[in-house]
Amino acid sequence: MKKPSVATSLLIAAVAVHDITAFSQAPMRPSSMLTTSTTGPLNMYIPRDSPSSAEIHPHSEVIMSRHAVSVDVVDDYPESNSRRTTTAPPLSQEQLVTSQFQDFWMPVLSCALLVTGNTFGAGSLVLPQLAEEPGLAPAGAIFAMAYVLNLISGLTFANVAIEQYQSGSNNNEQQEVPSSFKEFVQTNLNSPELAILISLVSFGVNSLVFAFDMSRIGVLFSGLLDPALSIPLYATALLTLLATLSPSQMSQAASVCVMTLFATFGSLLLPGLASLTHPVADWFTPGLAAGDPLRFWHSVGEITPVIVMSMVFQNIVPSVVKLLDYNRAKAFTAIGLGSFLPLLMYVSWCWATLGEGGIDLAATIRGIDTNPLLTVFSLSTLMGSSIGCALSCAAELDIFVKQSQENNNNNIEPAVEQSEKPTDEKFQLISVLATLGLPLAMNLAVSQGGDLIGALHVAGGLGTPILYGTIPILMTLKQQERLEQKTKGTNAGSNQDAWGKMGLGALGVASTGLLGVNVVDFANNIVGPAMLPTAIAATTVAAI
């Protein structure tokens, strides 16, 4: 073993003498023997409210700097290395950026894509057709307003979920917020009547969208089969899948459809935008209804509910908030970004299809062999939307069917202890039949299938304002009421700021306006003509 030099030995002795002198002069405390430096690795053993090592040992910084030198000199002696103190070097700018990206942006981007995948869908097949009437610029403005309203609604749902989770944590009631949107709403409102209303509205909205999907399948295959035949065949295929596969297996099939949708969408959109001959002038080109104010505002009223419903993503918000550990900054960023991407996608798609020299969306009507890539995009979009709507409708009906069966069993037989039911069991056959029965009946009632764009108009104009406008406002008010009751007599209260109140006010006004206008429109165009013959007959009988 190499012996230390005389100079080294003297240096070690001097440091040791300095140590003994410094420690003898400093007040002895129990934690001083454990503390070496304010930045040392042993600092974790001292409570936050205890004095720091600098207060306990005023010479610690000098000692540590000298120890660092002495250890470098006597590095050949392992026994002296026990006094060596290493401080983690500060992270470089590149390391800080990488750490922030992994901790914040990676989960945020993942959840943002989840929101985008649940937003973009079958509306892309009809929105260019509806945007052709008012024009690209007015349609783009409606898209922007629909994005803002849906964003306010989504952030309201997220804030309710976060407040619910934090309230449970503060009261030592660590309860997870339900990931299911309907369970989340029902848990917060705690009203059986509203729960039934939500289920009925949700079932109606999904049935109407499902009916539109079926009608578009008939249009897509009209070159091969009559829609009166292709639509029942499509319904039969879905009936077989719903009756034989579990919900998780159906969800996997829907995921494949969504992946195919995004792959074909990019392959269609980028060449379509590149082929536009006058991309800037397309935004200033008047629509077909530009010369007639009455027709223009009618077209605006037709496209607005469809755009609002196509931008809906709120049903996925509880899952997103849970995945991000109820972190408000992460959740709000993911929701804002994830709902902004569909806005760009829808507007770009309308631009590429309405612009001069762009994508000819009418190729899907002329035959499935005209543009195979566009056909695959349309088919994957309709199938993914159909599976999602069918799963939602069947789940709603299954709840009522099982409750009815349990009530009958309780009335006939005494309650017996049952084993835990599987969480992924297949749907009841009666639920599956009812799920497909209503959309199929609507399509068969229309001659030659038809487009059933009116179904989207009714779903977006009546169902969407209730589910995603009225419900989040009621949930927020209910939560504030519970918070005020808990904090009564204290200075604590609602933490909702002025911007939050303004957002709720804007959401309430827009939802009420959209609902009111469409109720009047629905009454004039559907209920009125249906009841007119009966009213005329009754008036005639009364006159006679």
Task: Give the secondary structure arrangement, pairings included.
Elements: H1 6-25, H2 53-56, H3 60-73, H4 93-117, H5 127-131, H6 136-170, H7 181-189, H8 192-220, H9 227-244, H10 247-274, H11 293-310, H12 317-323, H13 328-354, H14 363-366, H15 372-412, H16 429-445, H17 453-486, H18 498-543
Helix pairs in contact: 1-3, 4-13, 6-11, 6-13, 6-17, 6-18, 7-8, 8-9, 8-15, 8-16, 8-17, 9-16, 10-15, 11-17, 15-16, 17-18
Summarize the amount of helix as a percent range.
Answer: over 70%
Which structural class best describes the helix and strand composition? Answer: mainly alpha
Query: What is the mean pLDDT?
Result: 76
Q: How many H/I helical runs? A: 18
* Largest sheet entry: none
- The SSE order reads HHHHHHHHHHHHHHHHHH
Task: Please give the number of β-strands.
Answer: 0
**Unreliable spans:** 14-83, 412-422, 538-543
Proportion of residues in β-strands: under 5%
Beginning-to-end CA distance, first to last residue:
128 Å
Radius of gyration: 33 Å
Estimate the global geometry from the Cα principal axes. globular
Question: Can you tag this structure with a few keywords?
Answer:
single chain; 544 residues; mainly alpha; 18 helices; globular; disordered C terminus
What can you see in these coordinates?
The chain has 544 residues and is mainly alpha-helical. Helix content is 70%, strand content 0%. The protein is globular. It starts with 5 loop residues before the first helix and ends with a helix. The model is unreliable at 14-83, 412-422 and 538-543 (pLDDT under 50).
Write a compact overview of the structure shown.
By secondary structure, the chain is mainly α.
